[in-house]
Write a structure and sequence with these properties.
Strand content of chain A: 25-35%
Oligomer: heterodimer
Number of strands of chain B: 5
Number of helices of chain B: 3
Strand content of chain B: 15-25%
Radius of gyration of chain A: 13 Å
Shape of chain B: globular
Strand order of the largest sheet of chain A: 1-4-8
Order of helices and strands of chain A: EHEEHEEEEE
Shape of chain A: globular
Helix content of chain B: 40-55%
Largest sheet of chain A: 3 strands, antiparallel
Radius of gyration of chain B: 15 Å
Number of helices of chain A: 2
Number of strands of chain A: 8
Largest interface: A-B, 30 and 35 residues
Chain lengths: 117, 129
Amino acid sequence: MSGDFAMTSAMNHYTDAVGHKAIRALPVWHFRAGTPRTPTRERGCYFTTLTPDTRNLAQRIRVSREKTQFLFSFDDAGDLQPIAGGRGAYIFWSRNDYLVAEDRQRFEGPTPGRSQT
Amino acid sequence: MIGGDDVIFQTPLGRVALSIALRVVHLHWPAAVVQDAEAEEAVSPSRFALAAAREVFVYENAAVAARWIADGYADELANRMVHLLRDDETLTVVVDDRHAPAARRILDDLDHALQVNALNLCFGVRCGQ
């Protein structure tokens, strides 16, 4: 599914090399619910509508630059919930593992436009 | 994975809430610099154009800002950047852990300041009646 990335509305998940390898291991992308480093944030899978060309992406989603090196992008099925507060405009989540079938997948690979470390 | 601990303040103060938040954070971080979420650089609070801002990053100082802008989050940067988002009814303050002492002090002072200003707003309306 690597290739041209269409910067239209989609749900995105940024990760590092380890995460990229794990998620793309099977034809159906499997995003596993995890425990965030923030004690008060609920365990789950987190996604964002912010595209790779978003200014200050790492600050907005509050991750290391390394964690934005790889991207999974897929069609939004409307089944993810916005997080509470202002960042709910662009951050969504699932309490459980989240599967993305091949017909929803748009792009996976090194995040376009970002230098690889 | 997404980082951050989102603390939501219900407030009718709108843009004023953002101004209050910047002042409270600046009191705790005298060397703070401020960056609009759409801007490339962080600037001193006195140079920051607040009027149109809706999403802002406030860094403890210029060195912290440079680290965040270059590398994103790192453990040693925890709770040294405050992310502010405002709309007409809420102010969201994003830190790394609301219970960490540094974040707690800022949040408690901000809560107090917003309540005081909301009361002043109500008092002003009554006086105008």
